[in-house]
Design a protein that fits this description.
The chain is α+β, with helices and mostly antiparallel strands.
Length: 309
């Protein structure tokens, strides 16, 4: 029988509220490479980000003496022997897609479930030994995959949510060792490839690609607006509407509960989904955003660990 990954073994022996320096040292002692991230955040504090991750105990202790409140980052993929499916709740609630994928058996083989401070779920698997598994995003499904050339924040790291400290917490450990995830098959299920679309001729403006009409439609919506805004942004990107024109139109629908900053981020995500590169925001995009709008706000999904295996 295969043994658990070093990360899962270390995680199982970690107190839920262990001091961060103690936890970082425990991971390093288990051979798990880690690196410090901003206290209460996700940004690396090292010069080369997750590329600086190490299991060298002296280096790890030195980092956490200097930054005792630093969150703990871990590279995913072959560097740590662990990959993670990240079920998000920002904008699109990923739990719906997660439930569908679980029913197909694509999610079997997990080793650990970790709750994120904002209500998401991190599902840990052993990394495949025979091939690279690059990281990817399925934005429409609300699910990311953290594999090679990626990283994740691990327990007991913490965030400040509504003035309260919230931890990344271990929710469940599988009673049996895990097995490698077919990340490519999961991606095809969550984000099936689309047939190529013919872009409209210059000067034409199909009704479904009219940003003003779509903005007016969104302005009257009150349910699932993030998902519909993402869909509308993908439509405009597919039809060749310039990003700035689409963004300016969509910003007209801002409401107190549907702020400009959230709209700008969702439109950019739609254009990135279609064209592959995130459009460069203007300074005015940020300046016009609603002050105090919480980008981490979103529906909190629930999922029971029972039946996952």
């Amino acid at each position: 029988m295969a043994a658990r990954t070093s990360f899962t073994t270390a995680l199982a022996g970690l107190a839920p509220d262990a001091p961060l320096p103690v936890a970082a040292r425990l991971f390093a002692q288990a051979g798990v490479p880690v690196f410090p991230c901003a206290p209460g955040g996700k940004n690396p504090l090292t010069e080369h980000g997750f590329h600086d991750a190490t299991a060298d105990l002296r280096q790890v202790e030195s980092w956490w003496r200097r930054f005792p409140a630093a969150n703990i980052g871990m590279p995913t993929g072959s560097a740590s022997g662990v990959v993670v499916v990240d079920v998000d709740v920002h904008g699109v609630n990923g739990y719906e897609a997660f439930r569908r994928a679980r029913q197909t058996g694509l999610m079997n083989g997990w080793e650990a479930l970790v709750r994120s401070p904002t209500g998401g779920l991190h599902i840990y698997y052993p990394a495949a030994l025979t091939s690279e598994q690059p990281s990817w995003q399925a934005g429409r499904a609300g699910i990311d995959f953290r594999g090679d050339r990626g990283y994740i924040i691990v327990p007991p790291s913490r965030r400040i949510i509504d003035g309260e400290t919230a931890l990344y917490r271990l929710a469940s450990l599988s009673p049996t060792p895990g097995r490698a995830l077919d990340a490519a098959a999961l991606r095809r299920f969550l984000d099936p490839p689309r047939p190529p679309r013919r872009l409209p001729e210059r000067g034409s403006s199909p009704g479904r690609a009219d940003p003003v009409k779509l903005a007016k439609w969104l302005g009257g919506e009150r349910t699932d607006r993030n998902h519909k805004l993402f869909w509308a942004s993908c439509v405009l990107a597919e039809e060749g509407v310039p990003y700035r024109e689409a963004l300016d139109a969509m910003l007209t629908v801002a409401q107190p509960d549907f702020g400009q900053r959230e709209i700008a981020r969702t439109v950019a995500s739609g254009y990135k989904r279609i064209h592959g590169d995130a459009p460069r925001p203007r300074d005015s995009d940020t300046a016009r955003a609603t002050p105090g709008h919480d980008l981490d706000a979103g529906p909190v999904g629930r999922v029971a660990s029972r039946g996952l295996r």
